[in-house]
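Closing statement on the adenosine-5'-triphosphate sub-project.
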Amino acid sequence: MDVLLKVDNLKTVFDTEDGVARVVDGVSFEVGHGETVGLVGESGCGKSVTALSIMRLVQDPPGRIAGGSVLFNGRDLLTIPEREMRKVRGNEISIVFQEPLTSLNPVFTCGEQVREAIALHQKLGRRESKRKAVEMFRLVRIPDPELRYRSYPHQMSGGMRQRVMIAMALSCQPKLLIADEPSTALDVSVQAQIMDLLLELKEKLGMAVLLITHNLAVVAQMVERVLVMYAGVVVEEAPVGGLFAEPLHPYTEGLLESLPKLGAPAGRLSMIPGNVPDPLNLPPGCRFSDRCPRRFDRCLSGEPPMFTVGRRRASRCWLREGGG
Ligand SMILES: Nc1ncnc2c1ncn2[C@@H]1O[C@H](COP(=O)(O)OP(=O)(O)OP(=O)(O)O)[C@@H](O)[C@H]1O
Ligand code: SF4
Ligand SMILES: [Mg+2]
């Protein structure tokens, strides 16, 4: 694999009244050129903070990156000057968040906001950048792009606003798009449309995508490889087919069991009992030990490292010691 992004032992902490919360606690993974990777896990496990850390957008204070490296095309984004980083954000990596309304400025038209982004990043004049912005609206399948160009954010539906945000994110032709729950705030049919759009754009533009979601069904359709995150660490890594066929971590097993099954009686959704632990109060040994149905003595005495299984898989579970 030709590596585009290599995150190594990334650590991000928040200073809180009760102590230092290690929210991202040694996360390592790679994304190849043009590859689509899913980052999944329950709410609060550190997915968004991981994404924000890669972009160096963690609010400081209370947050700060406490260690590790983020190599993008071989350059460590954690050590380059802020000025350089701004160029990376505008030109090489883009991020789309869950709620587009908070990211769009209510007093400017959607078209003008996309045009400005294009003018800034591609150093184009007004006429040319407007033409490109309309082209971007078309690319993200906004109907009547010339007309919609003049709409203000509040005049658009949630789905259309998310398309505007995607247009803006793609206007610099990034090599990597980070999509953090890009459709969660939308209703189900619109969610599916946004996901289809992302898939189509990814194919068309050949960029890599890091897709963050807690929806495993979305992951199954969209990505090539999956990272499962739990309580600040990656606990399983696998090609998507393998993950669904045979999960190698009890947490992944639990997530898969919580998926509604075809033909299952309504309401029989099994959830993993318990909650993601507070980063200030992790259980001893394995971070999943207080919820794990497979726990044994070893699990409480030490934290498991990531065990490699076969060529392309890994699991942070003592049951996989020795690669089995
Ligand atoms: N500004 C902050 N100050 C203190 N703690 C924070 C801050 N932002 C996030 N956290 C903590 O970091 C942890 C991880 O949060 P994060 O937003 O990354 O979770 P997530 O996996 O993206 O969840 P979700 O699926 O709900 O989006 C949580 O425990 C959260 O409380
Ligand atoms: S290390 Fe032990 S507690 Fe942790 S996931 Fe594996 S079996 Fe469960
Ligand atoms: Mg999040």
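Residues 12 and 65 are 4 Å apart (CA to CA). With this model delivered, the sub-project is considered complete and its resources will be redirected to Aim 3.
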